[in-house]
């Protein structure tokens, strides 16, 4: 399913807050991916926080990236809290 990512923000504990074009907000847990060689450098919290939007991915300054499909299918939907905020 193609659902473009509109927003990404790093969260504590190696998670990403994502907004999709469908209006859904989700949280993606990167911890299981950090064991793979391609993502091992992202254990550095400073580098992890360099996440930004790519064309159809989220990317980091070291060249690591994840596709919108992986992020959409393997993330958990979240709702706003009573203050209208998303998880931090």
3D architecture notes:
With about 90 residues, the protein is mostly beta strands. The chain contains two helices and seven strands. The chain has helices spanning about 45-50, 70-75; strands at about 5-10, 15-20, 25-30, 50-55, 55-60, 65, 75. The strands form two sheets. Strands 1-2-3-7 form a four-stranded antiparallel beta sheet. It has a three-stranded antiparallel beta sheet with strand order 4-5-6. The protein is globular and about 35 Å long. It starts with a strand and ends in an 11-residue tail after the last strand.
What proportion of the residues form beta strands (DSSP E)? 25-35%
Radius of gyration over C-alpha positions, nearest whole angstrom: 12 Å
Output the helix-strand order.
Answer: EEEHEEEHE
Number of helices: 2
In which range does the helix fraction lie? 10-25%
Tell me about the largest β-sheet. 4 strands, antiparallel
- The coarse overall form would be globular
How many domains? The number is 1
State the secondary-structure class.
mainly beta
- What is the name of the CATH architecture? 2-Layer Sandwich
CATH H-level superfamily title = NE0471-like N-terminal domain
The chain-level mean pLDDT equals 91
CATH third-tier fold name = NE0471 N-terminal domain-like
CATH classification, class level: Alpha Beta
- The first-to-last residue Cα distance is 27 Å
Strand order of the largest sheet: 1-2-3-7
Low-confidence stretches: none
